Amino acid sequence: MGAVATTFAIEVPAYATDAARDAATADEYVDVQLLSITDLHGYLQAAPGGHSVIYGNGGRSYTVGGVAHLAAHLERLRAGRRNSIFFSPGDLFSGWEFDAGAFADEPTIEALNRMGLDFATAGNHEFDKSPDMIRRHMEQGVPFPVKGRDTSFTDSSGRRFAGARFRYYSANTVWAGSERTVLPPYNIEWVTARDGRRLPIGFIHLTALGFESFPASFQPGLSTLDEVATADRYAALLKKRGVHAIVLSMHDGAIAGADFNSGSDPSGPALDLALRVSPDIDVIVTGHWHTRFNMMVPDPNGVPRPFVEAGCYGQLVNEISLRLDPSTGKVVRGLTVSTNHANTRDITPHPELAEVARYWAGQAAGRERSRIGRQTGSFLRTRNGAGESTMGDLAADWALWAGRQPSDPTDNGNIHPNVPAELAVIAVAPRIGQTVIAGDLVHDTSSNGAVTFGQAWQAVGFGDPIVGAWVTGKQIHDALEEQWSLGPSGELRFAPLAVSHNVRYSFDARGPVGDRVSPADVLVGGERLDLARSYRLAAPSYTFLASDGYPALSRFREPYRHQRDFESFVAFVRDRQVLSPLPLDRVTVRNATPHGSGTVIDPPAYLLNGDIPVPRPEAALLSAGGPAGNRRAANGFRPPC
């Protein structure tokens, strides 16, 4: 299939046929411009780190990113076009930039409103909080839950957040156990011919298959339907309604080479779909994989159609020019042209969007400095011989607190009861993947130990929720044993788990791997661990999904999703008000020897261009084990999203 698709990877721009080179002169047809961006992730200021330089158009490099420049490029591209539609295949919010994330992603919505986004597909990260967060807060502006503290901030115009002036869609995201969609499955837009006649264009929307089991967007109350069958179903429905021009906007992707304006050797789930999905679909716009390509692929009848992805973090704008037959409303496929435009920073930024970006940067700086609690001593990641640290213990206590929080009426993505957690674990130096602990909380004597919003936000979290679930005592014991493994050369490796304050256990430093912890030496709430009993455990979704290398816990039952880690840890500090380091006495070592605990292998740093760290959420997924919440391309590439 890759070889077939490569045949249609055409130079800049991508032309469906040679006739498309002269499409601009085909005045007898209705000209329609489709503009799209994808996977912005709240990066208002610029594309982060190494993502700020991309290559295309035969190897040229471009410095890209930022909504102010994006708006200027959009204004230029729209000029003189009667029928222009601006949309996105998803992951616009769930901000990974502090400026957006610290304000519940509302800055992203303000920027998109001002850029005139018409509609969007819901990506997996749009579900990082709850379905109601999309519908009631992001779309309608309902506070979730406390105005001015958690959401509903004052925007750059001085008004309270009122929601998006565009809608979200998904045809294959349904409530668990049903085929009832969470969001509308499709929308119909209307364009006008020269004589005033109105013609419909249908847009079908797909969200990444299985996203409800991704670590960040873990939603037990949702499920996803097969992508091809869903797209075919709605293509047939639209055609029956008299819509003969159809676009598929899908938050699932592929990889097709390094040049953003061509495609080579493509593979991935979106390509598999593109070669199979109904020939009534005229355009396929993808996202989710953070890749960049622009090409034509054949539909099942051998007729070429655009197949594109426009990178991430505001790197590109994809432009597809369609010609519609004014009498039938059908796309004249042979005249289709597609181009990926770099969002270069060498043009004058749009003044309105530049002000939006400046405003939220200033608001973020103020919020970062705001005091939310106090600490009486430092919490450090430095571990003792048992693998215990003050920062690890604090994180485990936060996880237990989070797993005991009452049900949040604004979180409607759960299906199981909210049972308070009995204990918690946090991977402080996991076997694989990343730790949720990002930094230390160092005591500042000059401020009398003040803990600021920024310190708490940056110390713990990469965007995943704490989950409470049932596991057996045997699973807990087995997970403790999984802290030790043998490396390629037989060396003993140690991947310590921090445990909450109500847990005590010891391990035998001379014991073999798999037999270092006696169940009799594990106490939960002062009682010996019962291997046959079920316990309510709190941990990050990442851990339950075996993304950090403790598969014993992956056989969990009746999960309940709590708040996302960034916000949850801030809420924990606010609730506690005073944080005091506790003695490191939760784990003891029997028969201690100099190397009896094993060598701790800290998670690797993921870098772009050799020396620039990638965003932590990306690193977490790139290094994850288990299902990791993403399908791979044929060459093993895993999307960092």
Describe the 3D structure.
Strand 12, helix 7 (269-276) and strand 13 form a beta-alpha-beta unit. With 641 residues, the protein is of the alpha/beta class. Helices cover 21% and strands 25% of the residues. The longest helix has 19 residues, at 351-369.
Radius of gyration: 26 Å
Overall form: elongated
Helix content range: 10-25%
* Count of runs of 4 or more consecutive helical residues: 14
| Main sheet characteristics | 7 strands, mixed
In which order are the strands of the major sheet placed? 1-17-16-2-5-6-7
**How many distinct beta strands?**
34
Poorly predicted parts: 1-11
Can you give the mean pLDDT? 94
- Class inferred from helices and paired strands: alpha/beta
How far is the first residue's CA from the last residue's CA? Answer: 25 Å
Oligomer: single chain
Beta-strand percent range = 15-25%
Give a brief outline of the structure.
This protein has 641 residues and is α/β, with parallel strands linked by helices.
SSE blueprint and pairings:
Elements: H1 2-6, E1 14-15, E2 30-36, E3 53-56, E4 60-63, H2 67-78, E5 84-88, H3 98-101, H4 106-115, E6 119-121, H5 131-139, E7 167-169, E8 173-175, E9 186-192, E10 198-207, E11 222-224, H6 227-240, E12 246-251, H7 269-276, E13 283-286, E14 292-298, E15 304-310, E16 316-324, E17 337-342, H8 351-369, E18 371-375, H9 390-402, E19 423-427, E20 450-452, H10 453-459, E21 465-472, H11 473-481, E22 484-486, E23 492-494, E24 497-499, E25 503-508, E26 522-524, E27 527-528, E28 534-540, H12 541-544, E29 557-564, H13 565-576, E30 578-579, E31 587-590, E32 599-600, E33 607-608, E34 612-613, H14 616-622
